[in-house]
Design goal:
It is built from ten helices and 19 strands. Helix 1 runs parallel beside helix 2 and helix 8 packs antiparallel against helix 9. The protein is globular and about 60 Å long. The N terminus is likely disordered. It is 27% helix and 24% strand. Strands 1, 2, 5, 6, 7, 8, 9, 12, 13, 14 and 15 form an eleven-stranded mixed sheet that branches. Strands 3-4 form a two-stranded antiparallel sheet. The protein is an alpha/beta fold. It has one domain: TIM Barrel, CATH 3.20.20.
Length: 394
């Protein structure tokens, strides 16, 4: 059976054990303002830039609230912050991995040179055909794909992991498997973060926090925008299942353990030059659950972002094969990885379910929201921080 955003129980991936202070990720909001406009953007407030001291204070607050492993810098367009290199340096000094999400408009050699002394671990490019951009002459998927690959190649040349950040709506659902194939076939792209579109105009006067729960005034909950383009992770997982993709792990909603509000996929591939010889979808097994908890036991925190590398991924595949994963596929992939000229790679795909509002005004969102940020001392989902009227007015 299905939950609101669920998948078939018989094909249930592992539920990640993050709870409360053990949630290993945080979104540090450093500015507002952007140099392009995107459909589905949740930013609402007028442009502003947080000072270094303010960012540092919020970073310290985040570390008191969570045992962090990875922190993502968000905005607004983060490359517009004049002290971004210093912010990344301060985050890395805390022993954290750093990711940034950018539209890539300002991403060039000069920008990446400025980050050489303290580079981020991961740069997610938000480049889609729907955007009106000065670096994309025509709004076509071919133009967007060419721009993404060119920017990703530049990022990878600096030793930084490159990925995509995209927004998915009902009209683009059929394009999701093709986007995943694009990343699978790309020699430079390794991650994809996909967010389900929602009409954020319907969220008015939200109150509460990520920890205590969120409430939206029932009188205002319908908003003024259309919801016909909204889509759920249930629809995405069904579409991907028809294309042979198996879900690896998930986070549930604050409403039900059967909701897959945050869903991840892991793809193992064999590359020889520019050719993909083999590709499998990794299904989680008992060993994966044990490894997640073992990392917490050894390091004191859960792992959020990692770059496996061939040796570590081979070990993961072998353990997975004998503990509930796809035995034959895993062993075949492992054998192929040792053939001369073959390279083993892992690709990662994450799908985020947008928050929704129930009839009584209760907001449904990720129970263990990894993308919470701090607003006036309170943890709130970053996608709703501009709707927290009681906090914004303080």
């Amino acid at each position: 059976m299905h939950g609101r955003t669920g998948i078939m129980i018989s094909n249930r991936p592992m539920l990640l054990p993050w709870r409360g202070k053990d949630i290993p990720h945080f979104a540090l909001d450093i500015l507002r303002g952007c140099n392009i406009q995107c459909p589905g953007c949740y930013n609402l407030r007028s442009p502003f830039v947080k000072s270094i001291d303010q960012v540092s204070n919020e970073l310290d607050s985040a570390l008191r609230l969570r045992r962090l492993h990875t922190l993502t810098l968000t905005g607004g367009e983060v490359t517009l912050h004049p002290e971004l290199p210093e912010i990344i340096r301060r985050v890395r000094e805390k022993g954290l991995h750093v990711a940034i999400i950018t539209n890539g408009l300002e991403l060039n050699e000069k920008f990446l040179d400025s980050l050489k002394d303290s580079p981020p671990d991961l740069i997610l490019l938000h480049i889609q055909k729907e955007q009106k951009r000065s670096d994309m002459s025509v709004q076509t998927e071919d133009s967007a794909r060419e721009l993404r690959e060119r920017k990703a190649e530049l990022i990878a040349s600096y030793g930084i992991v490159a990925g995509l950040s995209i927004i998915i709506n009902r009209a683009s659902l059929s394009e999701v498997p093709e986007l995943m194939r694009e990343i699978t076939e790309s020699p430079h792209l390794e991650y994809m973060l996909a967010t389900c579109y929602t009409d954020f105009n319907k969220f008015r006067n939200v109150s509460g926090s990520s920890e205590s729960g969120l409430l939206c005034s029932p009188a205002e909950k319908t908003g003024s925008g259309s919801t016909e383009e909204e889509i759920t992770n249930a629809e995405i997982s069904e579409a991907l299942g028809r294309n042979g993709y198996l879900p690896y792990a998930y986070l549930c909603s604050n409403r039900s353990r059967n909701d897959t509000n945050w869903l991840s996929y892991v793809q193992g591939i064999i590359r020889q030059g520019n050719k993909i010889n083999m590709s499998i979808s990794v299904k989680s097994g008992i060993s994966d659950r044990l490894l997640v908890r073992l990392a917490r036991l050894i390091t004191g925190r859960y792992i959020f972002f990692y770059r496996a590398g061939p040796l570590r991924f081979r070990i993961q595949l072998l353990l997975n094969a004998v503990s509930g994963g796809s035995f034959r596929k895993n062993i075949r992939l492992l054998m192929e990885s040792f053939r001369k000229g073959n390279e083993l790679h892992d690709k990662h795909f994450i799908f985020q379910q947008a928050p929704s509002i129930e009839e009584d005004g209760t907001v449904t969102y990720c129970r263990d929201c990894p993308d919470s940020t701090i607003l006036n001392g309170r943890l709130v989902p970053s996608c709703l921080c501009d709707r927290m009227k009681d906090l914004i007015q303080k």
